[in-house]
């Protein structure tokens, strides 16, 4: 006899449960997004040696670093929303490069107007 968790709970308990579920789900999504961004950067680095890279390759790499920095920022913010405040282990476990850590933050929208 399976009973739904929500049937014998007060509404505020149901809401708290659903909010915790959503925080955990969002944390998983942000973690996967960070993993994907770091994988793209690592694959790019493996395919394009740093030495004497042409300007378009350097720009593409800078974009990947910024995207990974944004994904890292989103993940850290979500972790903090879940009460996880120690990010040292996160940086080590995900092997986040220093340049990605330094670029951590919101991505600015690219301007279509040229100065």
Question: H/E element string?
Answer: HHHH
Structural class, please?
mainly alpha
Number of strands: 0
Helix count, per DSSP? 4
Shape: elongated
Low-confidence region ranges: 111-115
What Rg is obtained from the alpha carbons, in whole angstroms? 19 Å
Distance from first to last alpha carbon: 68 Å
The share of residues in extended strands comes to: under 5%
Nearest-integer average pLDDT: 86
> Into which percent range does the helicity of residues fall?
55-70%
Main sheet record? none
How is this structure best summarized?
With 115 residues, the protein is an all-alpha fold. The protein has a domain at 30-102.
Mind explaining what this structure looks like?
This protein is about 65% helix and about 0% strand. The chain has a domain at about 30-100. It is elongated and about 65 Å long. It is mainly alpha-helical.
Question: What is the topological layout?
Answer:
Elements: H1 11-47, H2 55-81, H3 88-93, H4 98-102
Helix pairs in contact: 1-2
Descriptive key words:
disordered C terminus, elongated, 115 residues
